[in-house]
Amino acid sequence: MTKNLVIVESPAKAKTIEGFLGKDFTVRSSFGHVMDLNKTKLSVDVDNEFEPKFEISPDKKKTVSELKKMAKSADTVWLASDEDREGEAISWHLYKALGLNDNNTKRIVFHEITKVAITKAIESPRGIDKNLVSAQQARRVLDRLVGYELSPLLWRKVKPSLSAGRVQSVAVKLIVERENEIRNHKSTSAFRIVAELAPDGPNQIFTAEYAEKFKEEEQAHDFLRNNIGANFSIESIEKKPAKKSPAPPFTTSTLQQEASRKLGFSVANTMRIAQSLYESGKITYMRTDSVNLSNTAIGMATSEITKSYGEEYVRTRKFASKIKGAQEAHEAIRPTYLSNHSVDANNDEKRLYDLIWKRTIASQMSEAKLEKTIVSIKSSGADKKFTATGEVIKFDGFLKVYLESTDDDNGEKQGLIPAMNVGDALSLMEMRARERFTKHAPRYTEASLVKKMEELGIGRPSTYAPTISTIQKREYIVKETRESEKQKATCLTLKDNNISSAVHYDNVSSDKSKLFPTDIGILVTKFLDQHFDRIMDYNFTADVEKEFDEIAEGKKEWNEMIKDFYGPFHKKVETTQEQSGKFSGERLLGIDPASGKKIFVKIGRFGPMAQIGETDAEEKPRFAGLRKGQSIETITLEETLKLFDFPRNLGNYEDKEVTVAIGRFGPYVKHNGGFMSIKKEDDPASITLDRAIEIIEAKRKADREKIIKSFPEDEKVQLLNGRYGAYLVIDKQNYKLPKGTEASELTLEDCYKIAEDPKNMPKKRSSRKKK
DNA sequence: CAGTGAGCGAGCTTCCGCTTGACTT
């Protein structure tokens, strides 16, 4: 059929490339890896040179059989997966899975998707690099061994269904350690002195800061008093030129950071939107660690900048990655056509595109030229000097288009400074001594965690977003907005020869959508740190990467490397398994005044819980789960005792008892065998019977509205309103309704008929949804 | 989803990286 079959990793790429190649070429995609280790088994023969058992992934069976068919009828198969470890392995796996041979198979690589690059690649094919394949195998086997030996250990020692891995466990550790730092941070305060001054003549006020801060309010007060009626004059003015350069074009990580800071997107959201822009051909590939732009792109940028801003704004650059372990198989993320200043798409896509366009264009624009002015001012009432700094843009350059934001954007703006001369007298408008507290390190956001992971070389562009969602799904960390801590601060003001004092409440931290560790995350980190310090070492990944590189260069055997690692690792797993007991993080809080028994908090099978009495005591202990937001690290005895006030009997309704209790999904009201969750506004400790009845009635109303139709002839059959529209239930089994069906018009016969059609059976979930 | 937590024991959970759809009760 086709003479040449070219296989790439992504279907969008396949479509583009097919346009560049002639009729004789058919381009298809493998959709990433086609072979992997079996998910349900270790699939690594640890007694036999660590031989991995790769098999065709279940969800790739169809792709592989289609490709196989096409490959059979082709003269030549061109394996064009990415030029990195994983890409090489994809080619090798395709080679095996499609039953290819050396005579009709060629391996090619290209970094940019242009006709020239691809034609050139076709002209210079090579064979599959087995060393690179071995390096991937080592990476894959190492991750499997770590993940599949540590996770079961956690199930036994801590809690079922937990997970551990080279990447995720260290990501959690970063957040746990940051929280510890914050907990141990001792905030100190000092009074900062700021003067608002104005030269004679036009009313141009500017601010200057005094060179010293004062620890005590009294000292600050004394200082202000000394400056009542003082003379201010300019001692020196220094002007110096400064430059600002644009940031490199986007990689996955920097795109996630900027989209988070400037647009407020989560990393998963950013990737979803970028994927959509990529699929519609608007931007280049979005999973990349490269800051490189192709010559074509730089050419487009040059003409676009010249046209829109003028020649003096052009300054092309080649950026080099500073990230260790960067594989740079792709270009940086950029618009496919820089002449499109915006795109026709939904709002989020437009905004993300706009960001990418600006960043790309700015990266090829001239530096901004600034002039910094530093004015030194002396006061007759002070020993040291006041300093005012100003910044004037002489030439805006790339700033015309784009300025990168930073994580801590609370830096004060540098104001304009009026034109003045040395010796000029100034009038004091106002002087303030404001108490400032030192701030603890900020909690991570999703995006700043990605930044840190990238710095440490942990994870890859394709895994940042999934890793962050995994550690949230496992409940190791939570993303939350918490009430920020306030601190009382004093501000003294000198104005019109008078000193007044006022009190402010300053936010110590801004905790909007920040990452917090949970009790389980803290406990698991502690456990792994104690027993597996090597894997929890921030340098572990970087160190093994060096060894993968040696394997890729043919300087090392992959299974030798794994053997060296696995020996001591596996021994540690075994001794921990045998010698250490349950790791519950148990904390003794004190004595229950009612029973005289001990009260503990710890991690149980279902998460954090409190316990009155000892497990091996004759009388069974009482248990209660901790509420959301409570932590075994910080909960007090009083708070714990309150948890045992449930279930609480509120009285009777319709001759049946109404009780309120706290369960797995929060507080609920129980009545006549039914459960109803209570809303956030209601406090289970003080809820009244009347309010509980309201909740019961509201639930009944919702249930009534849920039923579209029921049949008195067969009560097992019901048509219900669900989250995704109408559906059919027969004897607890759900069925989809065929498209276009009006549920309220269906007869009982219709329902039976629908249930018989296997098309309407709901798909079985491949993996059970985690609680 | 279902409102537990000892004991009994079967059977389940899990990794990282490469890619997109399929399709939810």
Give an account of the 3D structure.
By secondary structure, the chain is α+β, with helices and mostly antiparallel strands. The strands form 8 sheets. It has a 6-stranded antiparallel beta barrel. It has a 4-stranded parallel sheet with strand order 2-1-7-8. A 4-stranded antiparallel sheet has the order 19-20-21-22. Helix 8 (252-263) packs across helix 11. The protein is globular and about 95 Å long. Residues 763-771 have low confidence and may be disordered. The structure holds one DNA strand of 25 nucleotides.
Layout of SSEs?
Layout: E1 4-8, H1 11-20, E2 25-29, E3 35-37, E4 44-45, E5 51-52, E6 54-56, H2 61-73, E7 76-79, H3 85-97, E8 105-107, H4 115-123, H5 130-157, H6 168-184, E9 189-199, E10 206-210, H7 217-226, E11 232-244, H8 252-263, H9 267-279, H10 295-309, H11 347-363, E12 368-379, E13 386-395, E14 425-437, H12 446-456, H13 464-473, E15 477-480, E16 486-495, E17 498-507, E18 514-517, H14 519-531, H15 533-536, H16 540-552, H17 558-579, E19 587-591, E20 598-604, E21 607-612, E22 622-625, H18 637-643, E23 648-653, E24 656-663, E25 666-671, E26 674-677, H19 689-706, E27 707-710, E28 717-722, E29 725-730, E30 733-735, H20 748-756
Parallel strand pairs: 1-2, 1-7, 7-8
Antiparallel strand pairs: 3-6, 4-5, 9-10, 9-14, 10-13, 11-12, 11-14, 12-13, 14-16, 15-18, 16-17, 19-20, 20-21, 21-22, 23-24, 24-25, 25-26, 27-28, 28-29, 29-30
The structure holds one DNA strand of 25 nucleotides.
End-to-end distance, in Å? 50 Å
Looking at the structure, what is the overall shape?
globular
- Total number of helices: 20
The proportion of residues forming helix, as a percent range, comes to 25-40%
Rg, nearest Å: 33 Å
Parts with pLDDT < 50 across at least 5 consecutive residues: 763-771
Give me the count of strands: 30
Q: How would a crystallographer describe the biggest sheet?
A: 6 strands, antiparallel, barrel
Strand content: 15-25%
The structure class reads alpha+beta
